[in-house]
Amino acid sequence: MNMLNSVLISRALPLTLSYLLLVAATFSVDFILHKAGLAWTGRYLGVAGTLLVAFSFGYSARKKKLIEHGPLKHFLRFHCNAGWLGTLLILVHSGIHFNAVLPWMATALMMVVTASGHVGQYLVRRIREEVKRKKQQYGIAADRTDGLEQQQFWDSVTLGAFEKWRFVHMPLVTFLVVLTVLHVGSITMFMNWR
Amino acid sequence: MKKSVIAAAFVAVIVALLVAFPEILLNPGPLMKGHKPLDNSCFSCHRPFAGTSQQCAECHKPADIGIKNVAGRLLAVKSSKALFHRALSETSCVRCHTDHKGRQPKYTLKTFRHDTLPAALKNDCIACHNDRKPADVLHRTVSDACATCHSTDKWKSAVFDHTRLGASGRECITCHKKDTPSDGLHRQIGSGCSSCHGVTRWKPANFDHSRSLSSALKNNCMACHADKKQNDALHRNAGNTCATCHATDKWSNAVFDHTRLGASGRECITCHKKDTPSDDLHRQISSGCSSCHGTTRWKPATFDHSRYFRLDGDHRASCSTCHTVPGNYKSYTCMNCHEHSPSRIASEHLEEGIRNYNNCIKCHRSASEHGEGRGEDD
Q1: What is the ipTM of this complex?
Q2: B351-378 pLDDT per residue, tens
Q3: How far apart are the C-alpha atoms of B208 and B139, rounded to whole Å?
Q4: Cα–Cα dist A136/B358, whole Å
Q5: N or C: which end of chain B has fewer CB within 10 A?
Q6: Cβ–Cβ of B3/A174 closer than 8 Å?
């Protein structure tokens, strides 16, 4: 197999780079903010990042039909991008120095969930390619976007690796939400509001 | 097991841990040394959802700060610098103080902002900074309104507005005596600093020779500038009237008028020996610079070859065509071309009865067929 066309290079490498870029961007933004005397904005970046990640859950709401309109792939793209950016803002917010253990746990779990999200993204792309390949095999036009593709897609995602991934990812997300709520709650309780 | 049960169990475990070990899970850092007994008592300082701004004054009475400790005992050494706290609001502590930065108290101070002070205290700098006021003449004579010259972020650099002294009649030297240089010039000038110096900085100064000096001193440059005189032949012979060549704004760009040497009989080389290039041409010309050079600059020079032989027509050749002995431009030969072959030259001259024909330019000053007379160097 041509190395450049291999799944590892075409799918896994960009996502690995995306994850490493997240870490590099955190150090860069943190450095710039300190140089510019704007480190105090970190507190507010935490709020912005948390809201972004919360909004990215619109994808789950769309899947569960709590939101009834809009192409699912747009929601998925927003889920990935907003999740990445929100994670970046929260990492900068953490200031790359940890004091209390609760926010430390939340940050560590957030990085695990983000890594898991990247794995999920990889699986979705692979499934899409599989669907395309099968459509071509059955002689169905590749650019058709009627209900058949959707049906095939969800038939696929309920099976195999993707279902196993969701089995791990969703509890991690739940635990992250719990830690985040406790962190926000404790900060709200103890902080000076003036 | 249902997902919601797992989530609920996780919440229960974490909340239990938070309650059991708040100092590990929630405490963002150790309290300062004095607050150590409160390490595990978050709510001693924090009120739920109301912060800490109300509680500091319960122990730290603003009126006692700098006088008594929190137990109410008088301090062995009163800190007058801390007395300003009595004028502050009881809820304003967190503007300057924080905690959870480690045991060392010095890490718990934020940058002090004067704008948080009440107006009365803000304009009474000396109430806190009395020990910073210098005892020099200037500070003895000015008021306690430090902010007129100093800013609140640092003492230096201060900006003193000299126009405020307007009608005070004070001389510069009253405050700046120690700034006066001890050189000859400043010893003579006395106290009129402003005739040369501005009020924002000492340098650059603007010394006006015509205005500041007496007529006797004005014509005696050496009285002040003896150390500037060059020790070369020119300056040794030039006397002490520096102004003949130099201007009063700077020493360089001097203009030497060579016509003043008119009848002195001095040769250029007397002063310009070190300026003589070491090439072959200049080595042969021991003096007489002025035959080629002017008196204002060395270049461009005007060497007139036509005085010896006019280089026109076929004679626009390279130097080495005729000057075949390297470095010797007095030596030349005309026999280096087809036209002037030795046999032909000999034949033509002997035909005319000319036997002494070896020094061509004695008769020939150009490409002209006939001789034009004797050369200048004969």
Answers
A1: 0.73
A2: 888 888 888 888 888 877 665 554 444 3
A3: 32
A4: 108
A5: N
A6: yes
